[in-house]
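Re: weekly structure request thread

Next one in the queue (383 aa):
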Amino acid sequence: MTGGGSGGHITPILAVAHEVKRLSADTTVIYIGQRGDGLADIPAADPNIDQVFSVRAGKFRRYHGEGWRQLLDVPTMLLNIRDAGFVVIGLVQSYRLLRRLRPDIIFVKGGFVGVPVGLAAASLKIPFITHDSDAIPGLANRLIARWAKLHAVALPAEIYPYPATKTVSVGIPLVDDYVPVTASLRAKYRQQLSIPSGAKLLFVIGGGLGAQRINQALTGIASHLLAEFPDLYLIHGVGRAHEAAMNADYDNELSPAARQRVQVKGYLTDLYRYSGAADVVVTRAGATNLAEFSVQGKACVVIPSPFLTGGHQLKNAQVLADAGAAVIVDEVAVQTDANFLARAISDLLKNPSGAVQMGQQFQSMSHRDAAAKLAQLLMSGVQ
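Done, posted below.
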C-alpha cells in the first residue's frame, strides 16, 4: 500500500489494511511512504501494517485560480525542478524495492509517492489499483492511470475520466470507529473527553496537517463564542506543526477562565471520538473528513480551501450545499471578517434541532462499506 502526505491518504490506507487482515490474517501488508512525511509514524504504529519503507517523491506545485502566472514565480519553478529530481530518485528506489519485495498487488491511494511506486510497478508488471476520494482525480493517480488494473472511486464512476470498464465506485474507506452517533454514544465520548454532558461542544479540524487560516480565524473569534455561550467547550485539532504556537495564541487571547474550556490537539489518531462528541464541527472540505462526519451524522460548517489544485474542495463543498447537508463558508469572507464564521457557528449552536436535521441529511449521503469493498478487490486481484 502506498500514499501519504496527509491524513486524508493515510487514514483510508489503514482502513483498507484492517479489512485485508480481516479477510486474510496471514497476508503480509507493506506500506511505502514518502521520505520525510511528517505523518509516517502513523502507519508504522498500526498493527495491520507489517513492514514500512520510504522512497523519495516530488511535488508538482500548481494552485487553483493562479493560471499561467504561477509559471512566472521563480521560487515555485525552482522547487518544481528540484522535486522532478526527487521523482527520478524515487523511481530508482521504488524499482529496487519492488523488485526485492515482489508484492502480489499494490493499492495506490494517491499522493506524490504514488508516482514513483506506480511507475516502478508498471515496469515490473506488478498490478495495482488506484483510489480517488475527490470528484477530481489527483495528479499522481492520473499520471499512472494507464497502467492501473482498476480505478476505485468515491463518487459515481461516470464522472471520472477513466475507462468505464476499469472504473468502480466504492465510496471512501473509513476505519470501523466511524459509526452513526446516537445520544448515548455521544454521551460516552463526552465522558471519555471529560466534557460535561449538558455542555455545548464545538470541534474544529483543518485536516491531518492542520489549516493555518482556520486556526487564525478561530483564535480571533474564540473569546466571542465562549462569552456568548457560557456552557461552550472548544476542542481544536490544529495539526502537529502548529500545536505549540496555537496553545500560546489561545493563552494570549483568552481569559484564564475561558482558556480552561479550550483544548488544543495536534494530530488525532482517535478523531472519531472528538467529532462524535461535538454538537457542531468546523472542517475543511477534504473528502475523507467529510465522509467520516457524514457517517456520524454531524452538523458541519465547511470551509473549502480555494487554492488546492482543480478546486476539488470547492466541488466537494458544492455537492453538500446543493443537498442542504452542511453550512458552507467562503474562506475569503472569513479572512475579510472572522465574525462571518462566528455567526455561522453561533446560528447552529442556537438551533440544535436544525443542526440535528442537517446532520441527518448529511448522514443520508454516507457509505460505510468502502474499505471492505476495496479489500475484496485487492484480494481478488491477487488470485
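The mean pLDDT is 90. The CA atoms of residues 192 and 273 lie 8 Å apart.
Next request, please.
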